[in-house]
Amino acid sequence: MEAIKIFCPATIANVSCGFDVLGLCLDSVGDEMYFEKRAEKGVVIKEITGADLPLEVEKNVAGVAALALLEKLQPDFGIEITIHKKIKAGSGIGSSAASAAGAVYGINAICGYPLTNKELIYYAMQGEALASGAPHADNVAPALLGGFAFIRSYEPMDIIEIKAPSELYATVIHPQIELRTMDARSVLKKSVSLQTAIRQCGNLGGLMSGIFLSDYDLIGRSLQDEFVEPMRSLLIPNFDRLKQVALENGALGSGISGAGPSMFALCKGKENAQRVALAMREVVADADYANEIHVCAINPNGVKELR
Ligand code: HSE
Fold first, then answer.
1. Model pTM?
2. Which of 15, 16, 20, 263 to mutate to test the pocket of ligand 1 (most atoms within 8 A of CB)?
3. 156-179: per-residue pLDDT in tens?
4. CA proximity to 124, closest of 11, 231, 266
5. 181 labelled catalytic
6. How many CB atoms lie within 10 A of CB 195?
C-alpha cells in the first residue's frame, strides 16, 4: 500500500468509575489522517489543519507514537503524515489519543498490517505519554478497538474488548475552556481509603456487568466516581447543574469525560440522548464561552479506513 486515509474517532475515557482502565469509542466525532510512503526512512509530519500543533515529530503525539512503531517495524522506507484535527485539543474526548492511535494504525497499514490493533495500543500509548505525562490506554484502546475497552492490567498489558449494548448513546458537552490532562491529573489525590476503594470496585463491577448484560438500569446505578470526580468537577463550569439536568431528562448517568472539561451522559436510545443535549444547551445558553454538544452512538469498530 502506497497511501491511506483514515478516520480516528473521539473517545470517552474513565466512564466515571473506570479511572485509567475503561474507555468507549464515539462514532461521529473524529479526526482524519493521511499517510503516504516516502523513499527516505523516518517520519515527517507534512501538515496539520484545524489545530495549532507542532510539526516537529518529537513534540507531536502522532510523531512520538509513529517513531515508537517505526522503531519496532524497521521498514526500509519512510512515512509522511497529514493530520486534519476536528477534535479540539484539551477537550477531554481523546484528541491526543486520536492522533496517536491514528498514527500507529496508518503506519501499520502501510507496512502491510504486521501487528493487530490490540498490539498497536502499546505504541499509541507512547504518544499519549507526551500529552498527559502518563502512558494511559483508556483513550487509545477504544480508539483502536471500538466499543468499550477495559484495561485489566498495564504490566503485562491485558485489554478486553467489550461490545456496547445496542441502544446505548452518549451525549457529550464540551465547554471550550482549555484544561490540560497533565493539570487535571495533578489535582488528584495519591491515595484513597479502603471504604472508597470498595465502593468504586462495586461500581466498576456493576458497570461492566451492566454493559455485558445490556442492563441499562445497572449501568446507570454504577456510573459513580469517587476517585477523580470530587476533585476535577471543581474545574468544570456548571458541573453539578449539567449532571442534574442530564439525570432529570432521562440520562442513565453522567460524569466527566476523560480529564475534562467535557462531560458525558449515557442514555438509552437516541431520543433520550437528544433530549439531554437540549437540556444541557439551556444550562449553558448564557455562558461567556462556547459549548459544543454531540449526540453519538457507540462506534463498534474504532479507527476506520476511508476511500
Ligand atoms: N484516564 C485519563 C485521565 C484520561 O483521566 O487522566 C485522560 O484523557
1. 0.96
2. 20
3. 999 999 999 999 999 999 999 978
4. 11
5. yes
6. 9
